[in-house]
Amino acid sequence: LAKTTQPISMDSYEGQEVNITCSHNNIATNDYITWYQQFPSQGPRFIIQGYKTKVTNEVASLFIPADRKSSTLSLPRVSLSDTAVYYCLVGELNDMRFGAGTRLTVKP
Amino acid sequence: DAGVIQSPRHEVTEMGQEVTLRCKPISGHDYLFWYRQTMMRGLELLIYFNNNVPIDDSGMPEDRFSAKMPNASFSTLKIQPSEPRDSAVYFCASSRSDRGTSNYGYTFGSGTRLTVV
Question: Per residue in B38-76, is it b (16+ CB within 10 Å) or e — as a string?
Fold first, then answer.
């Protein structure tokens, strides 16, 4: 399983765009990239998933370069309620393992 | 849809006792996962099932842990005997293998906070 590396923590301010980058140098051909969000005392919540290029939904965008060795989660115009831990997962669709995650703190 | 339902939400038990955690996946989901979360080790995958069959249990800590899925709508995670180091939040998640959906991902339950004293 591909190991992921992402920053331990990030700070931002309300209204800013936040980009969280994840490195996954050993990604395999069958692996997908998935991001989850977790608030305290709750289970992780699916944000977005992609295989290559760019994926966008109502919550976020996911940018994946051609070599797929990294990916960037982009959160547009964050608010205080986006303060959470964000996990990057790489693996086959039904065999994904969580890393340490990035603790995002949004300040007023 | 009520989502993934876990019970109990909180469990406090004494060392040596048997603990059973329960999970009801989303109807129609054919994969079910059990995770454990602690501050020290983060989120660990313990075991997962596909169509009620255990596929990978390599994350199960030791023989004291066992998981079953007798049917598509119910799974249990049992710890016998329980130890203080088993204290953690245990999450159950389910997903579909149908890749036609554009919102593919795992749906997690609210978790069971287990405290072994």
Answer: eeeebbbbbbbbbeeeeeeeebbeeeebebebeebeebe
